[in-house]
């Protein structure tokens, strides 16, 4: 049976990035492979540029930004309604290397219902892997070679930059949790898929390059700090509930506050210094406080417009990681 695939390219900002992504997909289009660009409430409308150069790409305009979760859910529902076997969630800041989609289709046919990724490397950086199970990896990621499929590994994570999945997976476990809006929703999806009996794989014969966090304005920004902390707490809550609170408090909140302070140029060697930073007017400290506030008061989805404007107006951090 020939598998049919809908590739969902989520556009929020960066028309040049979206056009470059579509250019990299041009050689992958066939009767069984279609592309839809979801314009996720962006002020930068790509319709005219896409229609002029890539008429094979369908475009859907959303009236507001639904985040990675909600925007991709629009594409998944479309795949469900139209009877596609597979859907590929592809960030607009990616470049797909030739043959990648065809290879993933071949591997998906051999594996059956699952989640599947290519190798993911930082754009223009052959030495910087974002997902490569053949390299040493953190202890929270395990990789096991798949039987009878050379170069394919079962992994215990999901990376939303490029995720190909059988539509049957979403039929079984439901769509992406829109409470996350941005960040951690792919980890939650992977956990739910695993609980539903579906395995996540990486095929090392397929490759994309990912520019990463272009919609955020950089890897380390106040808005990313906000969603990262708030959603990490939600993820662990969904994962284990109240019994995880001691680990959440010590392992996530304190770690995030300390590392965010370092990225903000502080050396938090004492609790006094750290608390002074936490209650200061510095923008990263405000992002952390907003995240904790909204988690406690159960405010999920998109950050309210006033606070979003404050965090987006601030520059990205030049150093550190958080």
Which bin fits the share of residues in helices? 40-55%
- Rg over CA atoms, rounded to whole Å, is 20 Å
Structural class: alpha/beta
Main sheet attributes: strand count, strand direction, barrel closure: 11 strands, mixed
Please give the number of β-strands: 11
User: Quick check: average pLDDT?
Assistant: 90
Helical segment tally? Answer: 11
Identify the overall geometry. globular
The proportion of strand residues reads 15-25%
Distance between the termini: 46 Å
Runs in which pLDDT lies below 50 for 5 or more consecutive residues are: 317-322
Order of helices and strands: EHEHEHEEHEEEEEHHEHHHHH
Description of the molecule:
By secondary structure, the protein is of the alpha/beta class. The chain is 41% helix and 20% strand. The chain is built from 11 helices and 11 strands. The protein has helices spanning 15-25, 47-53, 67-82, 100-111, 167-173, 185-195, 222-240, 245-263, 271-278, 283-296, 305-312, and strands spanning 5-11, 33-40, 57-62, 86-91, 94-96, 115-122, 129-131, 143-145, 152-155, 162-166, 200-210. Strands 1, 2, 3, 4, 5, 6, 7, 8, 9, 10 and 11 form an 11-stranded mixed β-sheet that branches. Strand 6 and strand 7 form a beta hairpin. The protein is globular, with a radius of gyration of 20 Å. Residues 317-322 have low confidence and may be disordered.
Labels describing this entry:
globular; 11-stranded mixed beta sheet; 322 residues; alpha/beta; 11 strands; 11 helices; disordered C terminus; single chain
């Amino acid at each position: 049976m020939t598998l049919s695939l809908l590739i969902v390219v989520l556009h929020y900002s960066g028309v040049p990035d979206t056009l470059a992504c579509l250019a990299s997909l041009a050689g992958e289009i066939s009767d069984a492979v279609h592309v839809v660009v979801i314009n996720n409430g962006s002020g930068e409308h790509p319709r005219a540029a896409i229609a002029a150069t890539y008429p094979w790409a369908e475009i859907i305009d959303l009236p507001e930004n639904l985040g990675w979760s909600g925007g991709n859910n629009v594409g998944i529902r479309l795949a469900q309604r139209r009877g596609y076997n597979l859907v590929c969630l592809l960030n607009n800041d990616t470049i797909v290397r030739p043959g990648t989609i065809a290879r993933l289709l071949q591997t998906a046919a051999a594996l059956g219902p699952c989640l599947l990724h290519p190798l993911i490397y930082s754009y223009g950086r052959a030495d910087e892997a974002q997902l490569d199970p053949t390299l040493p990896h953190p202890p929270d990621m395990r990789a096991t070679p798949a039987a009878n499929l050379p170069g394919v590994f079962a992994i215990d994570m999901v990376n939303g930059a490029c995720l190909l999945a059988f539509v049957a997976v979403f039929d079984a476990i439901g769509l992406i949790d829109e409470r996350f809006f941005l960040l951690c929703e792919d980890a939650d999806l992977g956990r739910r898929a695993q609980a539903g009996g579906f395995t996540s794989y990486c095929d090392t014969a397929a490759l994309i390059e990912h520019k990463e966090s272009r919609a955020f304005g950089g890897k380390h920004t106040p808005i990313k700090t906000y969603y990262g902390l708030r959603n990490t707490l939600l993820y662990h809550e969904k994962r284990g509930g109240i019994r995880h609170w001691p680990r959440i408090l010590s392992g996530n909140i304190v770690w995030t506050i300390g590392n965010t302070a370092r990225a903000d140029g502080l050396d938090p060697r004492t609790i006094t210094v750290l608390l002074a930073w936490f209650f200061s007017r510095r923008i990263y400290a405000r992002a952390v406080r907003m995240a904790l506030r909204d988690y406690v008061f159960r405010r999920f989805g998109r950050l309210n417009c006033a606070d979003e404007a404050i965090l987006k107006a601030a520059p990205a951090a030049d150093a550190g990681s958080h």
